[in-house]
Amino acid sequence: MTGFRSALFLVLAVLVTVPFGFAVPLAGLLGYRPGCATAKLYAACVIWLARLCCGIRWEIEGQENIPERPVIFMAKHQSAWETVFMQATFPPQCWIVKKQLLWLPFVGWGLMGIRAIPIDRSSGTSARDQIVEKGAKRMAQGMCVSIFPEGTRIAVGKRGRYGLGGALLAAKTGAPVVPIAHNAGEYWGRYAFRKHAGTVRVIIGKPIETAGRDAPSINRELEEWIEARMREMNPERYADA
C-alpha cells in the first residue's frame, strides 16, 4: 500500500508541476511578489498531496518567531518535503540553489520565476561571494533568503558540514537568521521513492541577531541550535552524530 500511495503522489505531483512550471515564471515577469505567490500556491498543492496520498502531516512550533522584515531562513536538509513546506508557509523568499537545478524543465523555470540564486558549489569562495552579493540585493528588494547550510540532503542521524555562505550574508546585511529544525527525513527520505505516513515536527527558533558579529560565530550558534533540536527530537538517531 505504501508503494501504491507513493506512486499516486508522484503522478499527481508531476501533473501539478507541469502547469505551474509555466505559471510561476510568467507571474515572475510581473515582479517577485506575483512569482512567489504563484510558487506558494504550487508548494501548498504539493504538500497537500503528500498529506492526502502519503499521510504526511506536520506540526509547527515557533511560527511566531518569523519576523515581518526580510530574514535569512536556514534549515536542516533531509528531503524535498521541507523545501515545499518552507515555500508554502513562509513569506516571499528566494532560494540559494545549485546551478544545475535551473536546467530542469518546469522546476528550473519556477526557480527563475522566484529569483533563485544559482551557485556552483565547487567554486568555493566564488560561490560564497555570489550568495553575499546577490542575497543582499534580494533582501534590499524586500525578499527573504532561504538556505540549507549543509548544502545537500543529509541522511537522518547524520550531520553535514555547515557552510559559511549564509552566515557571511547575515554578517554583511545584519539581517536576523531564523533557524529551522525538523525530522521530515523520517517519513520522506532523501531521494526516496517510498513516503511513509507520520507527523513531521518542525521547530522554528527565535531569530539569531547578527548585527556587529562575524560569520563564524553566527554559524556556530546556528549549528549548535539546529543540532541540539535534532538530538531532542530523535535522541536515538543522533546519539553519535
Automatic annotation (TrEMBL):
Residues 71-185 form the Phospholipid/glycerol acyltransferase domain. One of its GO terms (molecular function) is 1-acylglycerol-3-phosphate O-acyltransferase activity. InterPro entries: Plipid/glycerol_acylTrfase. Keywords: Acyltransferase, Transferase. Pathway: Lipid metabolism. SUPFAM superfamilies: Glycerol-3-phosphate (1)-acyltransferase. Pfam families: Acyltransferase. Signal peptide: none annotated. GO terms for biological process: phosphatidic acid biosynthetic process. Transmembrane segments: none annotated. It comes from the Bacteria. This is Phospholipid/glycerol acyltransferase domain-containing protein.
